Amino acid sequence: MTDTRFDVVGLGNAIVDVFASVEDSFLEQHDIRKNGMTLIDEERADALVDAAPEGPQLSGGSGANTIVGVSSFGGKAGYIGKVAKDTLGDVFRKDMNDSGIPFDTPALEDGPATARCIVFVTPDGARSMNTFLGASVLFSASDVNQQMVKDAAILYLEGYLFDQEDAKAAFVHASEIAQAAGRKVALTLSDGFCVERHRESFLHLIKNHVDLVFANEDEALSLYQTDNFDEAVERMQADAGLAAITRSEKGSVVISPEGAVAVAAEPVDKVVDTTGAGDQYAAGFLFGVSRGLPLETCAKLGHIAAAEVISHYGPRPEVSLAELARKAGIEV
After folding, report:
1. Residue 257, domain CATH
2. Is residue 143 domain-resident?
3. Is 107 helix (H, G, I), strand (E, B) or coil?
4. Do residues 255 and 243 make contact, with C-beta atoms less than 8 angstroms apart?
5. Cβ atoms 284, 298 nearer than 8 A
6. Reported pTM
7. Which of 22, 229, 297, 313 has the fewest Cβ atoms nearer than 10 Å?
């Protein structure tokens, strides 16, 4: 896509991830829901950090992880999100800037701390996320960098940010700016429980403000309140211009007006941590779309990125995704 400063600009929760490797018994002892995302308050966050084994702390947030992935493919990317004026906020800003990603949203000076997500990883690779949203959700239309949105080929919206009315308004505001500038808008549904909380709002966005939808199988089924995957695909095709539904080891299904195409997953020697798999799939797919690549190639790039990230701890790539794409025979 021409006449753009960025391939993709993301808008989402600015979060620092805290990782801990635990047994299933730890989850049971501390009443932690396995393999999902649970919203918690600051007191609960402090208690879980105190109880957990010490692990790495990495800047995260689903949308931010995707944006870092786009950059790793060699894409031009920017980010819009909210942190507090505190140590974790400084860490998040530095990590994004060190990745070559402009992040200049003004920090929150009064109010809750920078958001954090405590990610408990069990031996089977499942991740159980407990998220204190803190400053990240105190995001409003006034925080949207209009010029950055206008300068991006694709605006990428993170569904997790949808838990506050001001953030919902910011989504629509940013989408309208992008559409008025002739840009594309993409949305990730983020989490099945997120879909349950915001089903009608998501459906409205998909039908009226979004060009590309990302979901995993559970999210797609939840969106349409069905247990029939083919029905969810059919209804998604009717509502969305373009969509990609991930199915773990089954790969993904790409939906367009021409139909639905299944794309195989990339092989992985050992699954270490599934955190960020969907985020990095979106990174590869978005990068491919921004460069006008065939949809099946976009999905393959997504699977390459997802395979890399689940082979180690953490939600962001540890090696160049552009190099992995070239090794797979895809010039980026």
Report:
1. 3.40.1190.20
2. yes
3. coil
4. yes
5. yes
6. 0.89
7. 229
Rounded-to-integer distance, Cα 267 and Cα 277, Å? 13
As to burial, measured by CB atoms within 10 angstroms (0-12 exposed, 13-18 middle, 19+ buried), residue 86 is: middle
Q: Confirm whether 117 is domain-assigned.
A: no
Structural domain including 171 reads 6-13+61-112+134-327
Say which amino acid occupies 162.
F
> Are 6 and 103 contacting, i.e. CB atoms less than 8 angstroms apart?
no
Domain count, the chain: 1
Distances in Å between the Cα of 221 and the Cα atoms of 63, 112, 159, 272 are 22, 34, 16, 26
The Cα–Cα gap between 43 and 59 comes to 21
Number of helical H runs and strand E runs in the chain: 12, 13
Residues in the chain: 332
Each residue of 193-232: pLDDT tens digit? 889 988 998 999 999 999 999 999 999 999 999 999 999 9
CA 163 to CA 186: how far, in whole Å? 18
In a domain, 51, yes or no: no
259-275 residue pLDDT tens: 999 999 999 999 988 88
212: helix, strand or coil: strand
What distance in Å separates the CA atoms of residue 60 and residue 246, rounded to the nearest whole number?
Answer: 21
- Laid out side by side, the sheet with 259-263 consists of 77-80, 6-11, 152-158, 184-188, 212-216, 242-246, 252-256, 259-263
Q: Is residue 248 part of a domain?
A: yes
pLDDT tens for each residue of 66-95: 999 999 999 999 999 999 999 889 989 999
278 vs 246: CA distance, rounded Å: 7
Contact in structure between 290 and 283 (CB atoms under 8 Å): no
178 by Cβ neighbours in 10 Å (0-12 / 13-18 / 19+) ranks as: buried
List alpha helices for the chain, DSSP H: 24-29, 42-51, 62-72, 87-98, 146-150, 165-180, 192-208, 217-223, 229-239, 277-290, 295-309, 321-327
Q: Which residues pair with 188 in a beta bridge?
A: 158, 214
